[in-house]
């Protein structure tokens, strides 16, 4: 069926099956480029007492990997238990929350809990019968042995293969609680309690997330999640467009992959806007054009979360327009930060791409860069680990800055990415099983 044949509601329904910029992926079918991590998680879960800790930069896909892995491991007799941490989360509140979700999941089988109560499921039957809140239950927990008892009950009542996802452990402020959690996990392992935990944490290193408590998680399988590979980036785009019988030329999907910077969020967002644009377009769309791509990019920028938009606006809305170009020049590096010299040479590539702009001399340029460390300028940069290097405070911002530059028709590609792109350009186009002429209907051929 061609895209124009859908009604608006049919289109929107199908669209959100193929792209989800605002929610995590929950099934293998839509999770691309993470097979290695899924395999590692599966093997680790087979090992008694072993749990998982997924960490990586903001927006890289941690919650999606955790949710997909949880759905694979969780037996079909129930949904997995899903907990989000907050700054005031404690082991007691966490355990009470797990118990109350387990009770809710099994509320229809109240008899099951009552039956278990007779053989010692006292905590869960208490929380079920008196309709107590999880805060009430938390206040009744004294020490780790109570917590352990509750989790044993959860394991026995919830399902045959229960999984708990604990999202963003790094948000827990009290460091003592992290140690307690580690103790609890160890005891669960020692007692062979059949409850599997998948934790996620935001940060580029384990040290950054857990500091001195790193040893506390020794018994966890740690999975560092990198940005998506180039292939995975365009697989999302190609598959989503294919669902509507639309082809995307290789040059465009490679550019989209470069601009997204490996963050699946940006790929989903641009493709979502692209599909809306193609749906609303007057002419029948069977192949994406550069014009479609740029329109989608403009729309995607408007749709970006305030959290990313605000620092960018603070950085560029200075008296001088030059700040915009200085900011763009910071986003060429691929990951580990860039030196002033490297950024300045990018800047020198940018200026000739814009009409009527004079190049800032090196000293002025570097003082603008240093201003980007200040709160008044969005504090988008921070000093890097290597002397004389600068990196992004939030790495996910780099993709947004790339999108801004690209929407202004300024191409920013690092040397590293250029080499990568050239090699992909030489390889045959990726059609993923779908092939169609790239010449639109009605276009005359010689
Ligand atoms: N492997 C993947 N394949 C396709 N899309 C993905 C993949 N991983 C994540 N996504 C998409 O990317 C976006 C961000 O994913 P997710 O919320 O899982 O990231 P996160 O690392 O948990 O982010 P945050 O740090 O903000 O919590 C979502 O739109 C999700 O649908
Ligand atoms: Mg998340």
Summary tags:
single chain; 446 residues; alpha/beta; Rossmann fold; Arc Repressor Mutant, subunit A; 5-stranded parallel beta sheet; 3-stranded antiparallel beta sheet; 20 helices; 8 strands; 51% helix; globular; disordered C terminus; binds adenosine-5'-triphosphate; binds magnesium ion
Beta content: 5-15%
How would you sum up the major sheet?
A: 5 strands, parallel
Highest CATH level, the class of the domain at 34-224: Alpha Beta
Percent helix, as a range, is 40-55%
In the predicted model, the low-confidence regions spanning at least 5 consecutive residues are 433-446
Q: Helix/strand-derived class? A: alpha/beta
SSE order, one letter for each helix or strand:
HHEHEHHHHHEHEHEHHHHHHEHHEEHH
Q: Summarize model confidence as the mean pLDDT.
A: 87
Whole-number radius of gyration? 25 Å
CATH 2nd-level architecture of the domain at 34-224: 3-Layer(aba) Sandwich
Give the overall form: globular
| Fourth CATH level, the homologous superfamily of the domain at 34-224 | P-loop containing nucleotide triphosphate hydrolases
Number of extended strands: 8
Within the CATH hierarchy, at the fold level, what is the topology of the domain at 34-224? Rossmann fold
Give me the side-by-side strand order of the main sheet. Answer: 2-3-4-1-5
């Amino acid at each position: 069926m061609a895209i124009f044949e859908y009604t608006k509601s049919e289109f929107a329904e199908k669209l959100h099956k193929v792209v989800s910029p605002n929610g995590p992926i929950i099934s293998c079918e839509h999770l691309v480029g993470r097979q290695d991590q899924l395999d590692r998680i599966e093997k680790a879960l087979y090992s008694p007492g072993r749990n998982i800790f997924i960490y990586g930069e903001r927006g890289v896909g941690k919650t999606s990997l955790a949710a997909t892995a949880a759905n694979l491991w969780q037996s079909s007799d129930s949904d997995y238990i899903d907990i989000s941490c907050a700054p005031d989360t404690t082991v007691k509140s966490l355990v009470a929350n797990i118990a109350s979700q387990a009770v809710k999941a099994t509320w229809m089988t109240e008899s099951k809990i009552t039956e278990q109560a007779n053989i010692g499921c006292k905590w869960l039957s208490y929380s079920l019968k008196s309709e107590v809140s999880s805060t009430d239950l938390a206040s009744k927990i004294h020490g780790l042995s109570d917590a352990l008892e509750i989790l044993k009950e959860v394991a026995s009542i919830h399902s045959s293969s229960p999984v708990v996802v604990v999202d963003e452990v790094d948000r827990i402020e009290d460091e003592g609680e992290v140690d307690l959690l580690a103790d609890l996990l160890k005891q669960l392992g020692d007692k062979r309690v059949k409850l599997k935990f998948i934790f996620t944490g935001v940060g580029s290193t384990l040290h950054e997330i857990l500091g001195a408590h790193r040893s506390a998680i020794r018994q966890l399988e740690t999975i560092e999640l990198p940005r998506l590979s180039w292939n995975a980036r365009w697989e999302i785009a190609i598959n989503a467009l294919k669902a509507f019988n639309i082809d995307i030329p290789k040059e465009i999907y490679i550019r989209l992959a470069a601009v997204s910077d490996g963050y699946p969020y940006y790929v989903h967002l641009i493709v979502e806007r692209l599909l809306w644009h193609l749906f609303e377009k007057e002419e029948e769309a069977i192949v994406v054009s550069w014009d479609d791509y740029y329109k989608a990019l403009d729309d995607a920028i408007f749709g970006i979360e305030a959290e990313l938009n605000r620092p960018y606006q603070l950085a560029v809305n200075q008296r001088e327009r030059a700040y915009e170009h200085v900011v763009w020049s910071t986003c060429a590096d691929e990951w580990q930060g860039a030196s002033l010299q490297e950024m300045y040479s990018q800047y020198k590539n940018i200026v000739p791409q814009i009409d009527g702009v004079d190049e800032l001399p090196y000293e002025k340029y570097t003082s603008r860069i240093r201003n980007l460390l200040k709160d008044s300028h969005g504090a988008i940069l921070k000093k890097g680990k290597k002397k004389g290097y600068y990196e992004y405070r939030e790495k996910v911002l780099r993709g947004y800055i790339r999108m801004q530059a690209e929407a202004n028709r300024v191409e920013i590609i690092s040397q590293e990415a250029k080499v990568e792109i050239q090699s992909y350009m030489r390889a045959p186009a990726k059609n993923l099983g779908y092939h169609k002429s790239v010449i639109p209907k009605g276009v005359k051929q010689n």
